[in-house]
Design a protein that fits this description.
Layout (H helix, E strand, L loop, with lengths): L2 H18 L1 H12 L2 H8 L3 H15 L11
Helix pairs in contact: 1-2, 2-3, 2-4, 3-4
């Protein structure tokens, strides 16, 4: 399988899971844009809504939420 085919499958996989759980779309956009504020603007949400979604997702997955600060 070619790399382009793998990326296409990965893209479809991510889109499917974002439809199943909208919190994943928020996570994807925070990663893409680099900030909660930019992700919130893209989704027409408030930054606090995105932060709450990320905390909820982290709790459900069983990982501690990040502090929101870069570095150690």
């Amino acid at each position: 399988m070619k790399v382009k085919d793998n990326l296409t499958h990965l893209h479809l996989f991510v889109r499917l899971f974002c439809m199943i759980d909208p919190r994943l779309k928020s996570l994807q956009l925070v990663a893409w844009h680099g900030t909660v504020t930019a992700a919130a603007a893209t989704l027409h949400y408030t930054p606090s809504t995105i932060s709450a979604q990320l905390r909820s997702l982290a709790h459900d997955v069983g990982v501690p939420p990040c502090s929101g600060r870069a570095g150690p």
